[in-house]
Amino acid sequence: VDLSTLIPIMYGIIIAGLLIFLRSVAGTVVTVLVIGLSAGTAMGLTGWLGINLTPPSSTAPTIILTLAVADSIHLLVTLLHAMRHGASKQEAIVESLRVNFHPIFLTSLTTAIGFLSLNFSDAPPFRDLGNITAIGVLAAWIYSVTFLPAFLAVVPLRVKQQTEARSDMMQKLAEFVLRRRQFLLYGMSALIIALAVWIPRIELNDQFVNYFDPSIPFRADTDFAMENLSGIYQIEFSLPATAEGGISEPDYLAKVDAFSDWLREQPGVVHVQTITDIFRRLNKNMHGDDPEWYRLPDERDLAAQYLLLFEMSLPYGLDLNNQINVDKSSLRFIATLENITTREARTLKQDSEAWIADNIPASATEATSPFVMFAYISERNIQSMLFGTGLALVLISFSLIVFLRSLKVGLLSIVPNVIPAVMAFGFWGLLVGEIGLASSVVAATSLGIIVDDSVHFLSKYLRARRERGASPEDAVRYAFATVGRALTVTSAVLVAGFAVLALSAFQLNQSLGLLTALAIFAALVADFLLLPPPCLRSTRRKSMPINPQRFPSPVTSKTLLTASLLASAALMLMAAGAPAQSETPEERGLAIAEEVDRRDLGFGDSASILKMILTNKQGQSSTRELRIHTLEVPERAEGDKSLVVFDHPRDIEGTAFLSFTKILDPDDQWLYLPALKRVKRISSANKSGPFVGSEFAYEDLLSQEVDKYTYRWLRDEPCGEAAQGLDCFVIERFPRYENSGYTRQVTWIDQQEYRPIRIDFYDRKDSLLKTLTLSQYNQYLDQYWRADDQYMVNHQTGKTTRLTFDEWEFRVGVNERDFNPNRLKRLR
């Protein structure tokens, strides 16, 4: 929106201002061309460098348009002034370049340094803004000293000559400054001090949603959501318990519950998500929905088994890993907030941390969330930008000392370069008293711009002293006469340009534009009223020798058009045709799957000890130990029966899970909770949910019946690292069960023993979700192969689960009676 509205407005202001101040159509046209080329070059290089546009960086074209005007105006004002006093066009162009080449280069350099200091910002969009604008500023300098004089040399340029010298506003202003130098020095100093007093009154505060105008769809949608649904901000806590599994301790749960009650009473909090509410609901549900049981469990084992029951009942795509860490030693606590300010967010954060430190000292923590981060980003930006702006000031001052060849004058220039920002912030503190993220970058952005005025004024002052041997008073008059009008015009255009940002639909851009406009106006006032008195004081006792040597005339150069060579590479398409087959890929895939199933028939029953190691993305792990019993069901229309008994951790010891696998129907599943001595039938349609928080879903662990899938053979290839030296069939299988969590699975099966080596699982969006690698195969009863190591990697979350099997036994004598839900209570 800003790009489509503000840039046309900016162009209109520039064209109108140039026509009024320059009174030259050719000068106006060439200036518009220069700023267009500068902005186009900056944005083109931005695209090549891969810099993305964001709301802050999208203002770069507007800023570049504004800054590019200054170089052109200084050249044009000097050129037109010379022509009005009798010089030919060529002589005027040469003189303008001679007088302005170094000052324009210096101002472009200092402006670029100022914007490049934004790279010290903690916010990447501001770094992008600084880099894009710096590119545009340097491009503007190049076009101003090459394209602009070349263009004016070949187009008609009519200027009305002045035969008599006449007094103008700049001469009157110069005389006023010389007469009132003492008053201006002390008066301006008093004004600056008076404004600086208001700076501490400014409070850092933001409401990020309010950055956007209500006309923006995001703002309208957000306002609707807050009014009708819930808040959009969150503040989060990680509350550690004392040990692994400690979140099930009744005392810990009671303290967390008390914190949630306290937090719900705080202003701006609309909802609190805590696992204690889940424990309350489960306790009530397990007691016939009796409201009297809507309370926290009073035993650790019971709480842990409730948690296991809840985990095993979650549908596809949901688990508790977003609320509990992997070893259940810490939980995540989330409060949803209204559209509060960053100051209110910082207060809530500090109060919450203080409450936790006083009431749950073992769980002392620091609140976090993207909103909390942004609540402090203004302060962090100011801290980092203080160093960046200070470094920029040092570099700019050093540049001035070198190019102006005067240590005293270079150091003197620091005063008018710092004071405008002080005046702008003081004025803002007086009228507004509150500022946000824009404050952290205004000093840096305005520093490079406001240096321009002092550079041009001081360069003309020193030129009069050195080349003309003028007295300090006459040098001030010369500076006002030669550059005063140009400074006024450029400052007016700059102020108007940045003031245009006040029309932005993004509040941060509005504040940035208004503050920078204030700083630029303050810079003009400081350079006209405050800079001359110190110059007169510092150089009045020193006479400078006349140095009539002029800078060499610039060499005329042709515009070189460099064409980018676009290289195109030919892509060779290699099609590997599959060998002719007498059967279709679908038939061959099914035949391979049936052979895998046939080789595993007849084992009867089996038992093994399983260790499950869960590891999150950060490398934290938790271990569970289980016993698994499997009963083979010969009928093809039915799946096998499985019994899982948990032995570790201690608080879920004795919990048992019984499952009767179905082909296309929901499985029959029961869970025995020893703390309640009750058997609970659980949701059986959920074959895709995570098994006890692991990366294995129920359908990954249950018997892999042939009729659960349709098949297609893809290719034959080496099995890879998991089974080096072996060749594999690669087949694709598609789940027939409508509630499966997968669209397809790609399976590698070794051609020698028909054992699964690797399986890639694709989610419902057909994106690669997980990879299972099966290794360390052992053969039992001279027929049945079992992988003692199964390693599942979740590519989307970075989590892993490793299953290690031990003590496999076959035909141990279990039967149908052992897989009866009523016998779960008697398990040992």
Describe the structure in your own words.
The chain is an alpha+beta fold. It has three domains: about 1-160 and about 170-195 and about 375-540, Multidrug efflux transporter AcrB transmembrane fold (Up-down Bundle); about 215-365, no CATH class; about 585-825, outer membrane lipoprotein receptor (LolB), chain A, CATH 2.50.20.10. Helix content is about 45%, strand content about 15%. It has helices at about 1-20, 25-50, 60-85, 90-115, 125-145, 145-155, 170-180, 180-195, 215-230, 250-265, 275-285, 300-310, 340-360, 370-405, 405-410, 415-430, 440-465, 470-500, 505-530, 530-540, 585-600, 700, and strands at about 205, 235-240, 270-275, 330-335, 435, 605-615, 620-630, 640-650, 655-660, 670-675, 680, 710-720, 725-735, 745-750, 755-760, 770-780, 785-795, 800-810. The strands form three sheets. The protein has a 13-stranded antiparallel sheet with strand order 11-10-9-8-7-6-18-17-16-15-14-13-12. Strands 2-4-3 form a three-stranded antiparallel sheet. A two-stranded parallel sheet has the order 1-5. Strand 10 (about 670-675) and strand 11 (about 680) form a beta hairpin. The longest helix has about 35 residues, at about 370-405. The protein is elongated. The model is unreliable at about 540-580 (pLDDT under 50).
